[in-house]
């Protein structure tokens, strides 16, 4: 589990439709004030998104100092390496340098699913669970966070495994259910096949299923029969903000 160096932090979660930010009580793992949400600009280029990030910081009255920032991309040393669900212009962007130039504040940048995974293992459905925990966010795509004995293994991108000859997220994300108008049993069957595939690779001790569809887990979770225990995410739409704030507050050498 992450060990914050302070009691409060600030996180911003960049999504496909909205960019949300709020202060976070890091002892409780909860937002300490209402979040600010601004529509994601279209096209969501680095410059346009950074302008909105600056607005969120200002409108939310973010404190000075580092803040956490999520992106739906692989992020290595502050540089974006993939753009499966964001504008291709992000690839190769040094987000830390760009945001610091625009805002005067230095962000700690993390993959959005990794942020949610940190939040769920530190405060939510996987709190106190030892061993290997897999957190999956089922939305436009399938984001993944792998946490082993409390330590994040970043940028796993397990939504890009193959399922039925396609990317798994094209077949089993919540967007596939909506796009193809699948019944809950039909979608659960696809998700079950995906989870069995992931289980054979990782043998997790627990799988936490998040994303907006987790709010409707009573409709589909009982339809899935797999080896590892399954739990719906607890922090839901706040997980990205909370995880980003927590990461930014970790002691650094």
Considering the protein shown, what is the CATH homologous superfamily of the largest domain? ATPase, nucleotide binding domain
Shape: globular
The description of the largest β-sheet is: 6 strands, mixed
Q: What's the total count of β strands? A: 15
Q: CATH topology of the largest domain, which one?
A: Nucleotidyltransferase, domain 5
Give the mean pLDDT. 95
**What's the SSE pattern?**
EEEEHEEEHEHEEEEEHHHEEH
Would you mind describing this structure in some detail?
- There is one protein chain.
- Strand 9 and strand 10 form a beta hairpin.
- The model has no long low-confidence stretch (mean pLDDT 95).
- Strands 1, 2, 3, 4, 5 and 8 form a six-stranded mixed beta sheet that branches.
- Helix content is 29%, strand content 25%.
- The chain is of the alpha/beta class and 253 residues long.
Name its key features:
253 residues; alpha/beta; Nucleotidyltransferase, domain 5; 2 domains; 6-stranded mixed β-sheet; 5-stranded mixed β-sheet; globular
